[in-house]
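Protocol step 4 of 6: record predicted structures for both targets in the notebook before any analysis. Target 1:
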Amino acid sequence: MKLSVWTYEGPPHVGAMRVATAMKGLHYVLHAPQGDTYADLLFTMIERRNHRPPVTYTTFQARDLGSDTANLFKTACKEAYDRFQPQAMIVGASCTAELIQDDPGGMAELMGLPCPVVPLELPSYQRKENFGADETLFQIVRMLAKPTDRTTHITANLIGPTALGFRHRDDITEVTALLEEMGITVNVCAPFGSTPEDITRLGAAHFNVLMYPETGEAACRWMERELGQPYTKIVPIGVGATHDFVREVAEITGLAPKLDTFRLRLPWYSSSVDSTYLTGKRVFLFGDGTHVAAAARIARDEMGFEVVGMGCYNREMARNIRALAKEFNVEALITEDYLDVEARIEELAPEMILGTQMERHIGKRLGIPCAVISAPVHVQDFPARYSPQMGIEGANVIFDTWVHPLVMGLEEHLLHMFRDDFEFHDDAGASHHGHAAKARVETPEPTEVQTTPTDDNIIWLADAEKELKKIPFFVRGKARRNTEIFAAERGVNEISIDTLYEAKAHYAR
């Protein structure tokens, strides 16, 4: 375990909390020291939920370690049941409390509480948040779901959406609509919006829709084996994947595939005159495995981008992403260290990043536009409006999300290019507000050497630095590096405007 400024995933008990917070009638008793209650903020501040997570903390302190922390846990369990009267409880320890080995599951079992209690064994120092969510849902399903008669009409369970999930709330609406169009009703959506009593009815559905493998695959595999329910393998993110998903559901159910594409605008927008200049843009992808795999297909097949690199942070999906990267003829980056990701982005110098909140910050530092496609995300990625990633409307949303940073970036570049123009300079005021153009008072250009941080032995002269700024921001970094390499190979340590153009001619061959 190592400390980091940023982390892509929290510890596994945060994943368990995502499941508990997504459900109703379930309570989580977490054996944790004072201070581990920070996780509440993820839901109330980042997701903007209007109520606290259903979690009771033991909040033991340093002075309690010399006494009976186990008794603190038992007291917390009893008080939590008496106060909240849940249909079921889950119990476990945070990463810090795991070190004192109090065995919350064993203690809760011996207490004889009047509701089902699901013990969680989440290895905090080997696994992460997505595993915690996946394992928690699996344990709840394994304890509560029982074989039962199928519904008279074809129904499906939606498996995987959780609290704090990237657009999970809206994806549920979109996938429900896709199924209803084929005459299929949703039996239970779990864990989002379900109760422990609902979990007991999972077996009544004819099949399961696995929406997010990171948080629902273990439960789906168990239900396939124990309840005889097949589950979908295709995640309907993007136009092609949505069509494939509908065909997969048709194969499972024997129904005719049906998909209304009336609302679909992405293909038209992608081929419109305004978008053709985006064709061939070099993009780098990073995030959770499911969203990266979906984004790679959309980028190449539906947007006309060139995927120059991809990777994921959740090692459970590493094999899938490595196989996909091989298909795209790029090298997969599997890492939990954002500095590794930043180094790879600098090396590849893409024109756009499709990533997480981390890559948004990296893009700001490197001057590369970034669209968020995956958790971890910040508050702006929990919009009040309807904004799914899945299905027909999800494809439209994705197009807007990806293209707008490029379009706005081009506008910024043009404004910067013309900022010295007599009409558009900073002191002129907005011409569309009736401001008259003012002559700009010119100041002499500096003649001394511009000391921009570069390689130790290479410096940029002022005229070259000024000319470099005329290059669009999304390729400026690559132009700078190529010029420095060109100069270094020829023993030139001062880059003039002539050196810049010589390097441009050299790399254009």
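Target 2:
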Amino acid sequence: MTSAQVDEGQADDPKGRESGRSAEGYQRGLGARQIQMIAIGGAIGTGLFLGAGKAIDRAGPSLILAYAVAGLVIFFIMRALGELLMYRPVSGSFSEYAREFIGPFFGFVTGWTYWLFWVVTGITEVTAAALYMTYWWDIPQWLSALVFTVILYGANLISVKVFGELEFWFSMVKVTAIVGMILICAGVLTLGFSDAGDTATVANLWNDGGFFPEGIGGTLMTLQIVMFAFLAVELVGVTAGESKDPRTVLPKAINTVPWRIAVFYVGALIMILSVVPWSTFTPGVSPFVAAFEEMGLGVGAAIVNFVVLTAALSSCNSGMYSTGRMLRDLALNGQGPKLFTRLTGNGLPLVGTTFSAALMLVGVWINYQWPGDAFNYVVSFATISGMWAWIMILVSQIRYRARADRGELPQSSFRAPGAPFTSWFALSFIGLVVFMMAIDEDTRISLYCAPLWALVLGVSYLVLKARNPGSPSFAKRR
């Protein structure tokens, strides 16, 4: 039985709500408080705390505009996802929608690609977390990576509530850090305290070479960095099958996207670049650390290191959660080993989560043994695979809206405003980002990896289809 068959006509089953389980067998253990923080935390990661330094060096203050425009595109993507989620809230999310509205092959590709994205992300983030630990203690990196992986794996096997609580507090640390930085910068600008008090001014946004010091081209070249910072914002869609009241909670979480981006990205950068001239920042150095140092607040480096450690662990925790669900969705649809369909008594995909966690540990070991080009190729591909999920969300929403407008499917209770035009705009923007990646030597390698992964998936799909002739798992749904 496919997840679609399980869910059709049952997503709103009163018995399912009374039992606290979704039609797919998951526990509905994620409350509004946790979903909201998962949504907020998903948009805040190491891309902001560390990666923004390189982007500031390339674009100067105009990076603020890049984040604002990209944030608008992310909002269009999330509203498209929200429309699909209210049509049919399932844990497989974008993989399931790609399967229904584009075709079984695209559902297969999306599920396995998103799974790989989180496995690779988990490997890199737990490795990074182990590195951050050396700031305070001289602990072997392999030991820290092992301990973090085991702890997060264990937490994900207790209950979905534990995952939700971990994400809540991880996100709380990140939010508190950014809000604290904004308030400190506001104090420097208005009261003039700290070493930067005499030079801090909003005019720093245009005094040092103008708002576009590197030209429009420099701003465009940062788009890939900006979009990478937003990867994982779609994770809230994977929680649909385990939210206590998805039809109420998820729209509220998605509608917070504009102010999240306005405050945590645009607001934070406006404050930082007003207090510290953009030319002060250098690639590879967190703009938060640099700002603290310019203000004479040496404790800032330790604070940011702790926050980035939290962000890395949050990302790894999300990977543990999402990989098991994606593998189970694939298995339910006959596009993955049946072993992955098994759930524990408390509704957790034990086998899929264990398999993914084991690969993360192997990947960490490989990273330590051979931290060369081969591993970097795989890591760079993670960025492309994350954007593939966004593309599938947008195309699925466009096709769903067309069928719903023709009366073939029920209308969603959370229609995306301006769609399908906003969805086409978002797709065009992603196309622009891919083009900029192609002409940038630092990110071009990502595009070389994609065809190899597509070839592997294509061959695997044909083999599965040949072994299961006539299976409904490989027939397009009507």
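Step 5 preliminary note on target 2. The chain has one domain: 21-460. Confidence is low (pLDDT under 50) at residues 1-19.
Proceed to step 6 after PI sign-off.
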